[in-house]
Write a structure and sequence with these properties.
It is built from 21 helices and 31 strands. Zinc ion (ZN) binds next to loops.
């Protein structure tokens, strides 16, 4: 027998199949150690055959089969090909996606605990008091965890009982279970007619991909859980992706209530041991539902019956390390392979997905109302330019202060949201709200302190830094806003009685950090929660009746063609945290540009108007989804080597352009906005293409130009152009 092996070295030069002789114990998917040159390396067996293409005397035997390491599920051997072709990644890198490092490197193992188990009475001398007590105790209970048993009665007494055969010490495998304190939510839920209709619509539709566009609080979770339960009852398995599982204890408790041990969590916030055990539960078939963030799409499940991607618009679904996959793409591959449905859900679908739904590629399911027709919270706009004119320099508008007072006096809770991403780099005039934009690209410029200038991340254009506003002549130009700490301090002086929690990167630590803060808030042990993007996603706090959005417009000015989309999504998501239960909710949105159309549509919850407008702009300016932004990154520790590679890459892209002039909307090469990261110089060829047609050729160029010295890789519609 022969094994076709991919060695576990993610390098294009060894990216092919090697053959070894092997015994019966080797199967497709096995993990093995094989001789490779003068050393031994780990590998994945992708096929076992009777014959071999090499002459027999040249074939070396497999040295070792890792029995304790799980074999890969057959599907990943098939997907490995598709993924490595699609993203031009070495086969070993594609396979690694399916096998987290805990499994691969053998550093984490099962955990065991010792138990003392009662076996039978024995005669004891009357002086052996401790032993007698211990024996009586264990006889009563049958068994006890060994360490605590030994602590109660002394190690000597316990050991002596073991020696005489009265007890036996057993080692048992234990499972390290994440978030053990989260209990199942016992509240049973009967789907509403709207939820029923959505479920039936999805079940009836012959389409592969379904987009649920449901306003916040429309009960999408219940729809997912019903569809998952249905898949399980058909003897299948399911994957349920959320952008941040650790942020949503409610989700976890709903899952535990419904599916108990059948749900396993895969998440980077877990300890290695927990991840190892949860992964094993899925691989062994004990657990049938994988819940987690992006990487859970690679869960080792066979016989998939459903894949759900909640908050499908979230940028965390795009991988920023090689292979730079899109989770939705991988989900489509798996859905295809298993012939099952893929559900995408969001209150604010990405422009790309919604366009596909409108064009009929996806089945569109719309839920326009909240559960029980509860109204969406009213959004009050506070114009911060007016506040400044009236002499209010603080972080809070009068409207927000008044509403906070009302909320606290009713014993309700409030969330204060700071839109901090991309904050310090945008340049805004405090007097009129003017924001510096590129003349060619209509995206906001980014301030670069190293050469004190403004740059466009889409075309590389440079502008002098402003000293006065070109619109109003004002000199209150600013880059940065208030931080969470400052906001908490202001709140404390305004509302000394209020209990305030803060959640941002500085206050969250440890793997349960988020969870602890959110639990405290959910248990009403605090009145106000202050936070950044972290608190925007998916929470369901019934007592929250007020949401304040400070600087709502900040994300409008990200140097990104999607900044309008992101802002609309963010406002809708954050506003959606308010008034979810019986009391009516309110939102105060503070801005310097109340007339902006994105804010106007967002305050009316008018997704369709937003979409039509946004799609029109993208179509007219030829930005995605009506084109493809493609960046070829060249990085090297040596500036000269990077430049040389860039020259070569760019030369080849120019040739491609000469052969296909119609495919290119824009092409240029430049320094990357951040010129050096972690000691590596960064250059890029940036292009906008009419379609995906030339993408494989561009990947080829990247692979061919990667060398010892410089790394060349491709990014498609990158979430971040720094
Ligand atoms: P979404 O994910 O669409 O924002 P959720 O699934 O979180 O909405 O549901 C919003 C709220 O409505 C939750 O508190 C949930 O428990 C409740 N809910 C959902 N479906 C029902 C139902 N059929 N009957 C009663 N309450 C429901
Ligand atoms: Zn530009």
């Amino acid at each position: 027998m022969y094994a076709q092996v991919i060695v576990d070295i993610a390098h294009s030069q060894v990216d092919r199949i090697f053959e070894y002789s092997c015994g019966e114990e080797v199967v497709a998917g096995s993990r093995v150690k094989v001789p490779f040159g003068s050393r031994f390396v780990d590998g994945f067996v992708i096929k076992v055959t009777d014959g071999c293409t090499l002459s027999p005397e040249k074939v070396k035997p497999v040295r070792e089969v890792f029995a304790e390491q799980p074999a890969l599920v057959p599907e990943c051997l098939a997907l490995m090909e598709t993924i490595s072709r699609r993203y031009r990644s070495p086969k070993a890198a594609a396979l690694r996606l399916f096998l987290p490092s805990e499994m691969r490197l053998g550093r984490v193992r099962e955990a065991f605990k010792r138990y003392a188990v009662f076996r039978g009475d024995i005669p004891l001398s009357s002086s052996a008091k401790k032993q007698a007590e211990a024996l009586a105790y264990i006889r009563d209970r049958g068994e006890e965890e060994f360490t605590s048993f030994a602590e109660k009665f002394g190690r000597a007494a316990v050991n002596s009982l073991a020696q005489k055969g009265a007890i036996e010490v057993e080692s048992r495998r234990i499972e390290r279970s994440p978030f053990p304190s989260v209990e199942g939510d016992p509240k049973p839920i009967v789907p509403t007619p709207a939820q029923r209709a959505a479920i039936e619509n999805i079940e009836r539709s012959p389409k592969r991909v379904h987009l649920i566009h449901g306003v916040t609080g429309s009960g999408k979770t219940e729809i997912y859980l019903n569809l998952i339960a249905d898949a399980i009852s058909r003897g299948k398995t399911a994957i349920f992706l959320v952008p941040e599982i650790s942020l949503t204890p409610q989700m976890l408790s709903k899952l535990r209530a419904r599916f108990k041990g059948e749900a396993a969590i895969l998440h980077s916030g877990l300890s290695a041991g927990e991840r190892f055990d949860e992964w094993w539960r899925l691989r062994s078939g004990e657990a049938k539902i994988a819940v987690g963030a992006r990487s859970a799409i690679f869960a080792p499940l066979e016989n998939l019956g459903l894949i759900v991607i909640d908050e499908e618009h979230d940028s965390s679904y795009i991988s920023e390390s090689a292979p730079r996959y899109s989770t939705v793409d991988i989900a489509k591959m798996r859905a295809e392979y298993n012939d099952c449905k893929l559900i995408l859900g969001s209150a604010t679908p990405s422009v790309e997905s919604y366009l596909k739904a409108k064009e009929g590629e996806y089945n569109l399911v719309t839920l326009p109302d909240r559960i029980n027709k509860k109204p969406l919270p009213e959004i009050i706009i506070a114009d911060m330019r007016e506040e400044a004119k009236r002499g209010n320099d603080g972080a809070f508008s009068k409207a927000l202060k008044d509403e906070l007072e009302d909320t606290l006096s009713c014993g309700n809770q409030a969330i204060i949201f700071l839109n901090r991403r991309g904050y310090s780099q945008t340049v805004i005039c405090r007097d009129c709200g003017y924001v510096a934009k590129c003349e060619n690209c209509d995206v906001s410029l980014t301030y670069h302190s190293e050469d004190d200038c403004l740059k466009c991340h889409y075309c590389g254009a440079k502008y002098r830094m402003l000293t006065a506003c070109p619109e109003c002549g004002g000199r209150h130009i600013r880059y940065s806003g208030t931080g969470t700490q400052r906001v908490v301090a202001d709140l404390k002086s305004l509302f000394p009685q209020a209990r305030i929690l803060r959640m941002d990167n500085d206050t969250v630590s440890g793997k349960d950090g988020h969870y602890k803060i959110l639990k405290q808030f959910a248990d009403k042990r605090a009145d106000i929660l202050v936070g950044t993007q972290m608190i925007a996603k998916g929470h369901d706090f019934p007592s929250v009746t007020l949401v304040g959005i400070l600087d709502a417009d900040m994300s409008l000015h990200f140097a990104d063609y999607r900044s309008g989309e992101r802002t609309f999504q963010l406002i809708t998501q954050v506003a959606g945290r308010s008034g979810r239960a019986d009391s009516k909710g309110k939102v105060v949105l503070q801005t310097y540009c109340p007339e902006n159309y994105i804010l106007r549509y967002a305050t009316r919850y008018d997704y369709n108007a937003f979409f039509e407008n946004e799609a029109d702009i993208r179509k007219a300016t030829l930005f995605p989804p009506f084109s493809l932004i493609c960046r070829v990154m060249v990085t090297s520790e040596k500036d000269g080597a990077a430049l040389e590679s860039l020259r070569s890459v760019y030369g080849e892209i120019l040739k491609l352009q000469a052969e296909n002039p119609d495919e290119f909307i824009f092409l240029n090469r430049m320094h990357s906005p951040i010129k050096r990261i972690q000691g590596r110089y960064r250059y890029q060829a940036l292009m906008r293409l009419k379609s995906h047609k030339l993408l494989p050729r561009i990947y080829d160029i990247a692979v061919e130009n990667t060398s010892q010295d410089s790394l060349v890789y491709v990014e498609e519609n990158p979430a971040n152009l720094s």
